Amino acid sequence: MRRAIFFDRDGVLNEEVGFLWEVEKFIWVDGAREAIKFCNDNDLLTVVVTNQSGIARGLYTAREVDKIHAFMQRSLAQIGAHIDAFYHCPHHPEFNGECDCRKPKPGMILKACAELGIDPAQSILFGDSKRDIDAAQAAGLRAGIFFTSENNLLDVVKLSVKKFLHVDGKE
Ligand SMILES: [Mg+2]
Ligand SMILES: [Zn+2]
């Protein structure tokens, strides 16, 4: 079983700008790319779990979401880093009824655990809303950690993996 670091996307990896579908509006949070590289270098899977109700609302399509994620991978590749998997929920209850993937539901996290062989009890999540933290708890993760983008994500990830996973990271 692998250990994973789950990241909410908007407000954690990139600055929250409302519904994001244009690559030009994507701004990395300080330390975000370095945090992902740190996980890569320490044998921790990196998994993005993101609610994208803009799809249900008809603001953009799954194709635009894929384009943003491809851009992120290209940008990460410049420092030798990568995200192992992306999961997005395209639903919103007003348009699609209830789904089991929209956070605070744990569906995306549970799917990732099943598909990638992740041990939830040895994995943690970073999110900027209560929904994220509730999803982490519902999925049985070791911890859901509240993060705000005034902080440096690398610093917070390093402290958290040490505290919760006893990983003394190599740089
Ligand atoms: Mg968020
Ligand atoms: Zn969903």
Walk me through what this model shows.
By secondary structure, the chain is an alpha/beta fold. The protein has one domain (4-165): Rossmann fold (3-Layer(aba) Sandwich), CATH 3.40.50.1000. 36% of the residues lie in helices and 14% in strands. The chain has helices spanning 32-41, 62-77, 93-96, 107-116, 130-138, 153-165, and strands at residues 4-7, 45-51, 85-89, 124-127, 143-146. The protein has a 5-stranded parallel beta sheet with strand order 3-2-1-4-5, with helices on both faces. α2 links the parallel β2 (45-51) and β3. Zinc ion binds at residues 89, 91, 99, 101-102. Zinc ion is lined by residues 89, 91, 99, 101-102.
Descriptors:
alpha/beta; 5 strands; 6 helices; binds zinc ion; Rossmann fold; binds magnesium ion; 171 residues; five-stranded parallel beta sheet
Quick description:
By secondary structure, this protein is α/β, with parallel strands linked by helices.
- Radius of gyration over alpha carbons? 15 Å
Helix content: 25-40%
What CATH architecture label applies? 3-Layer(aba) Sandwich
Q: What average pLDDT do the residues reach?
A: 97
Q: Considering the protein shown, what is the CATH homologous superfamily?
A: HAD superfamily/HAD-like
Bound molecules: magnesium ion, zinc ion
How many domains make up the coordinates? 1
Question: How many H/I helices?
Answer: 6
Largest sheet: 5 strands, parallel
Give the strand tally: 5
